[in-house]
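During the second half of the funding period, the structural biology subgroup turned its attention to how the target accommodates small molecules. The most pressing case was manganese (III) ion, which had performed well in the primary screen but for which no bound structure existed. We therefore specified the complex as follows and requested a full 3D prediction, including the ligand pose.
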Amino acid sequence: MVEHVELGYSYNALEPYIDAQTMEIHYSKHHKGYVNNANAAIEKFPDLKDKKIEEILKDLNAIPEEIKTAVTNNGGGVFNHNFFWTILKKNTSFSGKIADAINTKWGSFDKFKEEFSKATATRFGSGWAWLVVKEGKLEIITTPNQESPISQGMVPLLTIDVWEHAYYLKYQNKRPDYIEAFFNVINWDKVNEYFEETQ
Ligand code: MN3
């Protein structure tokens, strides 16, 4: 049974960068929809019902063929949003071991921001951009639809949802403006915590 995890803060906590109405619809409708659909897909499979969504997504080959697409899409939708909610917070600072590692890899925060923003802006259609640890190294990647990096053996540290439902009410077609705003609500304490777990 997949749970609809708590958001952990109020819908208006990220204003004005991410508006309350977007957060409410995103969490209570879109995210809840993925939870419901994932549960409907695994309903008849007791082996899967006992597993955490992370475990299921880390081993897509173990999913019965008839529900593989439904679980990849909806289970991915559940996990990706669960993770996304945790890395959002206003007024944290870019610091700690993750800051050192990003500065070492990209040369500066600004260069990292430029590369991450470029990858995010050019993700065609719906999907996600991520900062991950892949084979021990920091990488910026994007995934289409609700595919998750944990299905490819990577460890996510940071992500941005670039489905239109994540920004359209406030930003309409201006995805770059949403990306710029997103940099004000990255929870660097959490990202650093995820990074330290990989060290
Ligand atoms: Mn979304």
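Two results from this model are relevant to the next phase. The mean pLDDT is 97. Residues 132 and 138 are 6 Å apart (CA to CA).
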